[in-house]
## 1
Amino acid sequence: MGTTQLESVPEPKYWHLKTVLSEALDRDFAVGEVLPNERELAARFGVARATLRQALEQLELEGRLQRRRGVGTTVAPPRVGVAVGSTGHSWPGESADGWEAVDAVEAVPAGAVLALLGTAADQPVHTVRRTRVTQGQAVAAELLYVPAASVPGLSAIDAPAGPARARAVLRELQRLALDGQDRSVELGSARADDAKELDRLPGAPVLLVTTRYFTAEGTAAVSVATYRADTCRLTFGDAGMEITETRAAS
């Protein structure tokens, strides 16, 4: 990145600096590379550090940069698309969907989930926790709720707990014939456990993607996936709606 003095421009100085920095990121830096510190960057471009911070913050919002504790400001990894509302349907865990199984327990879910499942208010269900990882960083956390009736062949002896138990629930679920699924997206706030897993503060903005999976008998499972709002972009097209992950900034 060479030295550049910004001249008088019609748009705000930080916005012009953002454009210059963006071009330099494409030309001079690799994914994951750490940028020079703010003092050095401000001197190179002949701007105040406050102007530089505005430009860096805008690039962070656009998914070009990420700020990581103990590391600094680095170039963000490429975006990864996650289809929402497309015509293709598959069970969770099929076709290398990018999610990693973390744990599985039996618990009574929240009332909203019970309503979607259509199960009794006091009936525990298998709750599988998974994490979606991009470039080695968690960008989303999911809770998958599976009633016992959907996985009658599940054995507690074969996989009593942990990731093995989660994978066993997924395998049994995939034995069913999937008739279809629907999804909804809404803005929400990160719960404490999700915030910790996604390296955010509790209450940080997130996108909640709720998916219902159907068989001939009705709703077989419900997924509630929590995406960091700063790692996703919603796009609409002929194939439906898409969530595009950007990066996981600190």
Note: The radius of gyration is 22 Å.
## 2
Amino acid sequence: MTTSVLTVLRPGLVDYRDAWDEQKRLHEAVADGDRPDTVLLLEHPSVFTAGKRTEPADHPWDGTPVVDVDRGGKITWHGPGQLVGYPILKLPDPVDVVAYVRRVEQMLIDVCAEFGVATGRVEGRSGAWVRATDGGPDRKIAQIGIRVARGVTLHGFALNCDCDLANFDRFVPCGIRDAGVTSLSAELGRPVTVAEVLPVVERHLTTLF
């Protein structure tokens, strides 16, 4: 999808490092004013990525390699069945990173609501959460990790659709030890694929502005 103010690219399954290189290329073009704001919506083969605040104890127990990246936040997993979004957007002046994160959260909350999954925010923790109602822990359904350079965003969000949640048992997701992880499929008791979620996310991207 392309409009006068936003281009949305859907490249499918993309190696994480290749997508990172493409983000950096797009970021330079957007920051230079050579192309409009752009959002990549894709999936990755299984990969662990660690933000700048990751602790050694958060890493996978089995020694699986981790890609260190320059975003905020800690460690997370990306893989098939998870929709990953990389908005490359010029933020308005003065740049307010917290306000941008809140807009990303709201977009994810609205997308989940459209599928009938009630989510919200947790104080002091980014992302979209299914709040505990049965005495168990809150469950994270979408992660956020961003960077802003030259007033333009990098990295972004990941929404668990029908991914294998066992991957999150191999490390400390986002460095948080007292919460769980869930997906749209797990909450609804039916498969909810990336292909089903992708157009809904695309329709809600205007919230990011």
Note: The longest strand covers residues 139-149.
## 3
Amino acid sequence: MLTTAKRQRGSIPLYTALVICSAIFIFPMYLAIVNALSAWNTTPGLLPNGFHPENFKYATTLIDFWHFGKNSVIICGISLCTSTLTSGLVGYAFARIAAPGRNFLFMVVLSTMMVPGIVTQIPAYILFHNYGLLDTFWPWLFWGIGGNAFYIFLYRQFFSSVPKELEEAARIDGCSILRTYWNIFLPMSLPVVATVAIMTFQGSWGDFITPFMFLKTEHYPLATALGTISYTANGTKLVLQSVATAAAILLMIPVLLTFFLGQRYIVEGIVTTGVKG
């Protein structure tokens, strides 16, 4: 009993620190909700100034909210489908196909993770401009086909842990390399597939700078549109900050839902690749 009591007392500082850290992270979300429910012409405070849930309605009607949301769905769908499948194929090749220079090429792929993505934006902009692909969704297709170094690493670590006998049995049954990947390896890697899909969705849904550079206003996704288009009152230049905050909260809902619904797969996928790889 004494040992249990001491253990419980020893955990008090840990739980206290967790509560404090949780409050710090939750506080900005609380302020956003308070601001979204306040009146238009008031200064945001710690408590709501009135209760105006209609701000969420105005957030979807004062601008073409659903049109920009459709663009977000298109960009996320392209990125999710192409990046998830392509990264899986490349990871499978690095893990299971013996070829000269395989390890060297894998290190080259991993080294690209050290290059900040913003560094390649201007060369990519010039390239797509020369081919007339600006203000289209084609760049996201080509980026997805190119795969992602981190996702390739996750797939490769998982596929390396699969027993060789399973692959040999598939070859004896007449399966080609692609059929072995599609029918055996891919179904086994569902936790990794879910992890990659969720991370791809969250990265694409909230991306602001890339669509801002490569697209015009008509093709902006929701995150870029909310960052560049102001909610203004009729006939005035008064920015409706409460309505804009309500729109930002609506933007966050899909990301929060995918995280809470898929966090088990994220943890399982990363732990699996880390332990078995």
Note: DSSP finds 13 helices and no strands in the chain.
## 4
Amino acid sequence: MTTASGPPGTVLVVEDEESIADVLAIALRYHRFEVMTAPTVREALALAGRTRPDAALLDVMLPDGDGRALGRELRAQQPELALVFLTARDAPAEVVGALGFADDYITKPFNIDEVVARVTAVLRRTRPADVLPQRPPLRYGDLELDETTYCVHRAGRTVELTPTEYALLRFLVRNGGRIVPKEQLLRHVWQYEHAPAESTVVETYISYLRRKLDALGPPVITTRRGVGYGLA
């Protein structure tokens, strides 16, 4: 894992098509990432175990297994790992399934500049600094977000969130009871300057947060239809 003074991060690229893996590696290295490549699940697990990358860029369909299963195993071994999927499948069910535990997904064919931008954005919102100052927790109602450990509690009970879910909830908490427009969430949480109008990533992650938070108390996230989201 790299330090704050070194390259922007170490990326594990898991892609069995050599030409695609080479293009991704060249582009990421040009932008000062350290890059490791693996064509199979077995090799990816071995590499990740030795090097502990900051992010994994995973093809969904691999010759010896499913990239989503690989992502779950990598995340279980390294909870702070950022996960981005590469997939030729863009059906809503596939997208929702991928975003259930990953931080982003990119459909094939892709623009290489977009891939670099997406990986950079994911790391910016998920990777803490190597040394964090002690900061007071963020509080809203019975929610408490520990800005040093990135832990979330509701009514004293721990809520397990992915890095992106945490970033979304933190932004809503920081905005108090205000309604935050969807475009602002895309810009500040996902670092999207020009997100596609049909993007449903915000709605998807709001549903994940609601499922986890509402299990511990009354509904806390409100919707202003056609505008955005806020906290009750």
Note: The radius of gyration is 18 Å.
